[in-house]
Amino acid sequence: MKVDQLTTNDALVRSVREQLESANSEVLIATQPKMLERIEDSLEQCYQSGTFIALCLYSDPEAAAEYDYETTATLVRAWEQELDTMVSVDHERGVVGQLLEPDEEEDVVGLEYDTERLYGMAMLQFMSQQWDNGEEVYVTPARDLPYECANLRDAALNATLHLREENKIGFDADVREAPAEEDDTWESLQGQLTATRQSFVDPSTNSFFGEIGLIGYTDDGRVTMGGTGAYFEDYEARNITLTSLE
């Protein structure tokens, strides 16, 4: 476990940039417009690499809607608050802090962490506070199929968008029975998706807070799939590809 103090604005900006540039699959970020302007190129680079990015901008929705998000984020919400910047990356690390004004003096501007426990706390706060209170500003169009998803959230989002258009979609995923042990064997599973469980786009379709999942049918019947650490679902899934059944 590692937690490092950040003592200057430059150190905070540099840490956020490094977190974005090292992301592999997912970024949850809540920040102010003044920080967004300083990290936008790193955010764009991160998004263009295929990373799922959920951005909550601390701004009124009308002002937030003036930004162009097509090259910087998957989903955007706006919440008119003055809170700390929060960045959570790949289910394991992140940074929290706030840029100081010129007349402010603080010994510590922010914290950088590399531990799943702190990530879990940050993710829960992001979803229950920033995201839940934010107003939807931007949703990326559904990806063309076939589409190799960055992770389960990405799969649930794109499946949701396609199902809303009444598109018939299939899936091909690596799965193992849930709850799984670390050394449990993965196997291939294919079928048709019929529903999702998510709260990233309105209206929410999850049955309890934080639920992310896929529901579908195989030749053997109905199946449910969750992500890393899946417990209530039939399977834990990874390497998900969405396909067209049209």
From TrEMBL:
Residues 8-243 form the Transcription regulator TrmB C-terminal domain. It comes from the Archaea. This is Transcription regulator TrmB C-terminal domain-containing protein. It comes from Halapricum salinum.
